[in-house]
Amino acid sequence: MSNSINPVSQIRKPDSGYVGRFAPSPTGPLHFGSVIAAVASYIDARANQGRWLVRMEDLDPPREPPGAAANILRQLTQLGLQWDGEVLYQSQRLEYYALALQELIDNDLCFRCDCSRSKIKSSGSIYDGACRHRPSEPEQGYAVRIKTEDTLIEFQDLVQGVHRQNLGTEVGDFVILRKDKLFAYQLAVVVDDEYQGITHVVRGFDLLDSTPRQVYLQQLLNYSTPRYGHIPVIVNASGDKLSKQSFAPSVDVENSSHLIYQCLILLGQAPPANLLNSDPHTQLRWGIAHWDVQAVPKLAKLPQELSK
Ligand code: GLU
Questions:
Q1: Can you tell me which atom of ligand 1 is nearest the CA of 34?
Q2: Distance CA 296, CA 165 (A)
Q3: Beta-bridge partners for 54
């Protein structure tokens, strides 16, 4: 990887303080919805003379087919999305999540909970704090939840503008260690964004709702909070998010020239028609040189068909 020619590096000015990242969960190959998130975070990083890291969020082995992570890296390379440094694998970071969890426990910021899904559902969509108030904690078969307060978390999203959420009333005490003893995404993501010095997170709108939880954890753990930008999620003709669950096809990177072009159009940029036939590196270079984050649609969803 290190001796491959990276055309983008030739046009890079010295690194700014910007560090961005793409953090796929290797549950299958990249589909168009994940490619556009990768392209947006890559271009935003390079347009700001930043570094762009890749982190494999491989924390849920039963959901990860063998070879999926390697396949994603191959797809990124074929799309011209060359990352900096080594790929970080969350499966190798468990001791650090355990340390953060211990810190939260020591500071009395979380509690054990053995409520079943159906019990939580029957008491409304927001966890009612039942286990937080019981006299003794369950010994086994428990998840660990963070205590939330009536706290308004507010931030200025780079794409969507001001976003506010009251964690206590809109989310409730949330899980950081699952009942099956896997670390929850919310905990691992903040530990690693801090560890990797991430300053900018550009990702899909579906994660906007998770961001206040992450900001809250950063505050509890004394971490810094990156800038966030949430791009529209790409949906299929029936309005479902492209995902493994909606049977979104893997992108065909062998035939990749239209993919980057399609991403640029959907991201509100205005590539010239003759760029369609260029190779991905040239298209990315154009995207970096002309990037206007303000032009990205301030929408939750966008149909992939828009660009046809
Ligand atoms: N691993 C998450 C996913 O693939 C993304 C995490 C993030 O960007 O914060 O949905």
A1: 4
A2: 23
A3: 22
Per-residue CA distances from 156 to 116, 205, 230, 233, 261 (Å): 35, 14, 11, 19, 28
Does the predicted TM-score (pTM) go above 0.90? yes
Residues 56, 69: contact at Cβ < 8 Å?
yes
Distance of alpha carbon 191 from alpha carbon 186, whole angstroms: 9
> Which is more confidently placed, 241 or 52?
52
pLDDT at 105: 97
The per-type count for the chain, helices as H runs and strands as E runs, is 9, 12
Q: What digits encode the pLDDT tens for the residues 177-208?
A: 999 999 999 999 999 999 999 999 999 999 99
Q: How many Å lie between the centroid of ligand 1 and the Cα of residue 45?
A: 17
Q: What share of the chain has pLDDT > 70, as a percent?
A: 93
Q: Average of pLDDT values for 144-172?
A: 95
Question: Could you tell me if the CB of 90 is within 6 A of ligand 1?
Answer: no
- Look at residue 10 and give its three-state secondary structure: helix
Q: What are the contacts of 132-140 at 24+ separation with CB within 8 A?
A: 132/173, 137/111, 137/112, 138/112, 138/113, 138/114
Q: Which residues pair with 164 in a beta bridge?
A: 154
Q: Which residue has the tokens 């072009």?
A: 261
User: Does residue 207 line the site of ligand 1, with CB under 6 A?
Assistant: yes
The per-residue pLDDT for 1 is 36
Which of 131, 141, 146, 145 minimizes the C-alpha distance to 180?
Answer: 141
CA–chain centroid gap for 185, Å, is: 10
What would the mean pLDDT of 282-286 be, rounded to a whole number? 96
